[in-house]
Amino acid sequence: MIRLTALVLFYFLSANLMAQTPCVDGMAGDYPCQNVTLLGHLSTDDLLAELEGGIYLNDIWGWTDPDTNKEYAIVGMANGTSFVDITDPTDPIMLGMLPEHNSIESSQANSSRLKGGNSVWRDMKVYKNHAYIVSEDPGHGMQVFDLTDLRDLGSPDVPYTFTEAGHYDGIGDAHNIVINEETGFAYVVGARGASTCGSGGLHIVNIQDPKNPVYEACFDNDGYTHDAQCVVYNGPDTNYVGKEICFNSNEESVTIVDVDDKTELTMIATVSYEGVKYTHQGWLTEDHRYFISNDELDEINNVTSTTKTFIWDVQDLDNPVLIEVYDHRTGSIDHNLYIVDDMMYQSNYTAGLRVFDVSQVDKGFIREAGYFDTYPTNDNVSWLGSWSNYPFFESGTIAVSDITNGLFLLAVDYSSTYIVHQPEDFEGCEEEEIHVWFEVAGDGLNYQWQYDLGSGFVDIDNEVQYSNINSNVLIINEGHVDQNGLNFRCVATDGEVEYVSESAVLTLNNKPTPAFEFIVTNNNVVFSNTSVEADTYEWDFGDGSSKSTFSSPSHSYPLTSDSYTVVLTAGNGCGTRSIEKGISLVVTHVESTPASMVIYPNPTHSFIQIRTGKGDEWLRYTVLNACGQVVLYGKTNSGEGQAIDASSLFAGIYLIEIEDNKGNKVREKLLVK
């Protein structure tokens, strides 16, 4: 239903419309850009937006009329939702607005950012020609608006004020709404004031009868859900093909949920990542193999100096794996992102709309293709600039909401080539795949990677050690020792201009080389670790006992003669390697060092003495190294306390064997520092 409002008396009949402005030399009018044209613009005044907590506009969505093919932007504001005919994006028409549900009967102020009928947060989605709108204004519930009311309105002299076609009060307020248009279910997330789903998880509403939503189910086993994408899964994991699956951004994790059977909702997997501050939102690639997500609070908490985008391999839904983190050129806070075909459109607040090529996401790579900075003042870490975008119109028009600067209608053309990211010195591990990339925006680019083998750069043509040599991403198939220290660079051409990258040096890190020696004393074995380039260790003593992670442990075997296989696994950041040795024990009765016998000092630097407490007594001593070799021997008189010169011994662990004149022997570990 439609009615005129007196509030439009001050609305300017000639709205502040902007003609198409191409991006020339990095600017479209006052806005920094590359490969993006400004088609049209409406200010916050044009949209009848009111200021609340520093915010005029928030989220945005779109609708295409199936009967007329007209395109409409649905623009979230602090005080309601505006509807704009953007069929001709160079001449957008403000049709009217649907006020906040509580705007007529104003509620009491709840905070500086929420008060009677206004809210900083609003979200909307579309199903069967109806828009479903939620807000964080308490008691707002979910509005239903019949989008066919927008037909045949032409270009009104004054904007209309629209009314709801329906309302769902099963929630009080909510942060976001997700709709699966294939199934007819809405997933309200971050909801409060509901008798069900009190944790703010997936509050599921059946909207198959569009004007009469009814509660269906709840999933909040993983707590609060900030945003989600719910699809009929059509990826490679055959266990879930054809099922309805939700990919949730749950503050500290990406959580995947099977929602196909609304009576038995099941969490498939939940996974987090290093440096997580607020898992905000994400979107699947078209083939459902990868999920690309963002974290809204890592920049403001100084976890990172640049905007980061996270690439997840979700080909096995039970085991999602973070395969890469993409670093942007700017440090602004990242917000909503969406994927159409091989392109990703990301609203990064003060950095505006950023456009990326994700055709190589299977290799963990994203390539900037263009941008339009809706907030040219700065790229600071703050909540200003582009809140969101809607890139799904068949015409190619991209609708972008900017918190203070209004509605932007854009088109991407990829006409310009420019360098985004130079190759940087990089490192990797031997025998493993290593990547280096040259990020250049533009279309129809040709690439050739080169290396310097000592006499200048030449084209790489070795397709055994390298692949992707004619791509912006060079892959070293298996790092080899002869590649350590090599310089690499890339030459990109667009048919007219040649772009030669800076050079990058490869540092190749080795896997560890495990090695050890040992000394056997009856059933006791002292191990001496001589591994190279290792920082972690695991010892399997071969007798079924617990494994040890000490560098050089000692171990007591059973008091029986036997043979054992000892395995040392040494590790570092490049992986692990193992070595095994056999140990044969012949267990006999050997006295321990009696209390009356003292070997001192132990540890020693230069000498030792032996006292038995039995007066003058000749003692024979033998010192063995870790390999069992005799390195020192002789006689001494315990009564006289003669010193044994040990200065010739290197630092390490030794075994000293002492035999008295009656043939009694004792053995003890000796440590030389």
Description of the molecule:
The chain has 673 residues and is mainly beta. The chain folds into four domains: 35-105 and 120-412, YVTN repeat-like/Quinoprotein amine dehydrogenase (Methylamine Dehydrogenase, Chain H, 7 Propeller), CATH 2.130.10; 419-509, Immunoglobulins (Immunoglobulin-like, Sandwich), CATH 2.60.40.10; 516-585, Immunoglobulin-like (Sandwich); 598-672, Immunoglobulin-like (Sandwich), CATH 2.60.40.1220. Helices cover 0% and strands 46% of the residues. The strands form 15 sheets. It has a six-stranded mixed beta sheet with strand order 1-14-8-7-6-5, with no helix packed on it. Strand 16 and strand 17 form a beta hairpin. It is elongated and about 120 Å long.
Topology:
Blueprint: E1 2-4, E2 27-28, E3 31-34, E4 36-42, E5 57-64, E6 71-77, E7 80-85, E8 93-99, E9 114-115, E10 118-119, E11 122-127, E12 130-135, E13 142-146, E14 160-162, E15 166-168, E16 176-180, E17 185-189, E18 202-206, E19 214-219, E20 227-232, E21 244-249, E22 254-258, E23 266-271, E24 279-284, E25 290-295, E26 308-313, E27 321-327, E28 337-340, E29 343-347, E30 353-357, E31 367-372, E32 386-390, E33 398-402, E34 406-412, E35 418-421, E36 426-429, E37 434-437, E38 439-441, E39 446-452, E40 457-459, E41 466-467, E42 473-476, E43 487-493, E44 498-500, E45 504-509, E46 516-521, E47 524-529, E48 536-540, E49 554-556, E50 562-572, E51 575-585, E52 598-600, E53 607-611, E54 618-624, E55 630-637, E56 644-645, E57 652-660, E58 665-672
Parallel strand pairs: 8-14, 36-45
Antiparallel strand pairs: 1-14, 2-3, 3-31, 4-34, 5-6, 6-7, 7-8, 9-10, 11-12, 12-13, 13-15, 16-17, 17-18, 18-19, 20-21, 21-22, 22-23, 24-25, 25-26, 26-27, 28-29, 29-30, 30-31, 32-33, 33-34, 35-38, 37-42, 39-40, 39-43, 41-42, 43-44, 43-45, 46-47, 47-49, 48-50, 50-51, 52-53, 53-56, 54-55, 54-57, ...
Signal peptide: 1-19
InterPro entries: Choice_anch_B, Haem_d1_sf, Ig-like_fold, PKD/Chitinase_dom, PKD_dom, PKD_dom_sf, Secre_tail
Keywords: Signal
